[in-house]
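Morning. Coffee machine broken again, so started the prediction first thing and wrote up yesterday's gels while waiting. Chain of 257 residues, entered below exactly as on the submission form.
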Amino acid sequence: MHHNSISIQNLNYNYPDKTQALKGISLDIHAGDRVALIGANGSGKSTLLQHLNGILLPQTGTITIGHYPMESKYLREIRNFVGLVFQNPDDQLFMSTVWEDISFGPLNQGIPQENLIDRCEQAINAVGLDLKDYAHRNPGNLSGGEKKRVAIAGILAMQPQIIAFDEPSAQLDPRSRRQFIHLLQSLPITQLIATHDLDLALELCSRTIILSQGEIVYDGQTEDVMYDSGFLHQHSLEPPLSYSRPYCDRKIDKDLD
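Came back before lunch.
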């Protein structure tokens, strides 16, 4: 196993209209890390996530997932290694029951029937739902928070080593958002979280990567950048709502010491 869960070197990607979405992206994400990926709309976040399980393949540059190079012949192994949770769970939940959605991935992995129920039950329990209560429910009738949990359970049932989230707190009410943060904190798995929710990033992630116009403009400690309002504004971002002057004063005093 490669010592990094994800290694990206000089990744570039142009859309068919010649718009350059990613420019020279290089980064490593280690096993067990929880990393925030933030940036304004059009910065390249979703495009980068789609490279992590082969929805998009590198045009130039290299990606290594575990010990697999991102090449067509390794896509099955890579997609077992990396789970991608879409921004809108309706794009991910397409079966008629919760059970069918959660079991879809493991079945396609060839998991024996005798192991399937245990695997899916562990996954749905991990997201705080009970299989007996939800197995036969139609995903379309669930709340936004429940849909998010079922989408994640479907990924967890495949037992990936990395999960990439695209705007995980979008469309969640405050209570569901708080429950969701607790869920992500509880998952003992490498996580890359693309989000506009800077408060979520501040609470969950010690490391933040900022993309701006397809380039990495920051890769470092989350707290250091979240309280640099000038830098955030420069890249069309707003400081987190939890920003408070007393905290900044203490941080400045600490730095002066």
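The first helix runs from residue 45 to 52. Going to sketch it on the whiteboard this afternoon.
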